[in-house]
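Sample intake sheet
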Amino acid sequence: GQTNGLCEMGVLAFSVSGTDVSTAQTVANTVSRVRLSDGLGYNFGIADGQLDGQRMSIVMVSNSGNAAILNTNLAGTSITFNAVGETALLEFDRTSSLWYMIGGTATYTA
């Protein structure tokens, strides 16, 4: 369910401020949801993958502001979700310790 009208990934809910990426979100779930309902945008990070080739799907299920993945283990600068239904399929590479966006409709910035 929704937590404080902010963000939710997988079954573990979390809240982040507009610029806080210091707490990496879990990657234990293969499908995670982003839910925004307070009119603010949020930036968040994700933890390193647990296995080489691990895949993770992220889906925006409700939106009243943009959400972006911004962290140093992303192969690129950001992935932005700004509409319900936008998705990102990520794959983790253990050699580089980076998540690569390999599919989806969210906006990828190199």
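Comment: The CA atoms of residues 59 and 87 lie 5 Å apart. Confidence is low (pLDDT under 50) at residues 1-23.
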